[in-house]
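[09:14] KT: can someone run the structure on this one? pasting the chain below
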Amino acid sequence: MLVILISTLTLFSLSPQSVPDSVIIRPYGSLPEAIQGILAGQVDMLPITAISLGAMQPFENSTQVKLVNVPSYDFTYIGFNLRNAPLNDPKFRKAMLFAFNRPRMLNQSVGSFGRSLGPGLFSSAYSSAGWPTVNDQYSYDPAIAKSLLDGEGFNVTSSSPFRTDPSTNETLRLIPIISRLTQPQEVAAAASFAKDMQNVGLPIISLPESDVDFNAALKTYTFDIFVDSQTANNSPTWLYSLFDSKNDLYPVPLSTDLVGYSNSTYDKYAGQLLTSTRPDEIRTAAEKCQEILAADLPVIPLFSQDFLVAVNPRLPVNQVVGSVSETIRTSVISILQSPGASLPLRIGVTSDFGNLDPTLTSNQADWIAFGLLTEPLVSMNQQGNLKPALAERWAASADGTIVTITLRQNATFYNGQSITVDDVVGTVNWLTRNAKPSSALYAIMTGIKRADVLDQKTLRITLTQSDSFAVDAFTNLFALPANRLSNIPSEPDLALGQLLVSSGPLILHEFSRTNGISMLLNNLYFGKSWNFENVNAFQGDTMQGVQVSSGTLVTISSRPLIVDSQPVENASYNVCMYDQNGLQLECVTGSYTGQSTYAAAFPVDARFQQGTYWVESTMYGNLPSGNFIILEEKTLTVRSSPLFPLILLVLLIVGVGALVVRRMTRSSRGRPRRPRSVRKARPT
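[09:31] RB: done, structure tokens below
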């Protein structure tokens, strides 16, 4: 009876309560599908980074959606392989720019959602940060174009609509301009350029290609002319990485001088841009670089396309110049802080998710999620300038090779664990070792040699080369618990549960590559208390020197998992427990228990002292629609055993029972005995 009673009291089950989602990110297979989704009210907010004028038509005259333009530092350009004639002739390139009707191209490619780009390649967004720009002296003038071509010997003949090559006196060879079929605005720009070039006698044709073929052509330099877009931020370090001749690493042009440009004066100013610590010298160097680019024209400018956020008119959008991710992040935080916010807030994205692995992914949907799940080292204000986040302040060394960062002291992960210098240093070094070329962090991490702890508040990041603007790229860096990074699991079902620990406004709850992400509010981020389910467990105890229980058995159960009305029976289920310092005590693999649920059992043994522990469960599986993962968090409070009062109760019951038996015995002894009947013997 005692054993049965103890077992009943010491077996607990954590069946998750239904917690409403705060934010849901839903992927769409295409921009037209996403636009129909927001018009139908399926989502409240839709970032658009690749514009298709045809797809945007449903927004015309719509009162259901407002469009917010976010000026971008990114730019689109026409690049040349300067190793090939006649593209290596600067006057030939100038003639092409004069012959190019860029206002018409801009209207045909991005309409009112883009801005013209000058020959210095600085988008208009740079003016918000005070960067200088050069004047565009190449207005559309076919007469000047023809005069330049005639002067260089590219003559017109009556036998062909195209000009002759002065080096051979034969008709110019056919020159294709390649673009990516997945980027309709780039395809439209290439077609417009080819048409204008043919009008002045240049045999240039537009050739859209798949991304695979396009990238292969650039990687092996088997191209003449291409259209591409450059990702940039408020520090124009691309002036160095794209055009400095020392970066000509043929035949592998990743982050190099792809077009093969060489100008020693330009190299000098591009070097000053990265190494100088004087603002006036940096400004002058940037201006000189633009002037040289405008004169030499290693590439032809096209446009800077605005980012767009389509949004429900009742929702505010905090526009951050140059970053759609920061615009989404700051807008979501503002909405979540509003007292009357209607949740869940639903965000659409125009692609499937990757794998939420920062060392691998450059997927936009993944990085929008990272921006909501993590707190960056530095953030941006609405003008696109840096502001503190995890980092309270920072400073670069005189030679630009070391960045010293001081962290703010009140930052925590979502479970209350403090974010320390060790966490930041451990994460930076882990990313430096593991970032792959496919990752959006790859270029940043290749510029970092290592990170070191200086004291409890300060760390040092050593760069591979001088870069006064290194901190501008740290908006994508965040912290993970260092003690988890030291023991990285190999199984994918544990990876997210153990590594992607939230430090931002939201907590990852459920993830599917094709169905999207659901996230819960991180109350600690907003100065509120935890809102996770709590369970009590009790330590084992002894009675009269004999241990009656080895400890409380805690059973962690998943929520029912049903897809298309069918239970999912082939998922994996894992549960891990962590102490107050974030150290993992034990991980247990659970099993399917029927009725669409999974469970795993923990013994609360001597490792568990009185106090609060963190419980994380991870369910991972494969569905026809793609991988999914569900994360659930709980708190486990270990208390002293309730066995003492239980034992007293049992002893009392036993004592009362013994007393009753004793009284019954005494009562029976005091009664007179009935005489035993004597059976007489029968006579024989």
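[09:33] KT: thanks! Residues 7 and 327 are 54 Å apart (CA to CA).
[09:34] RB: yep, looked fine to me
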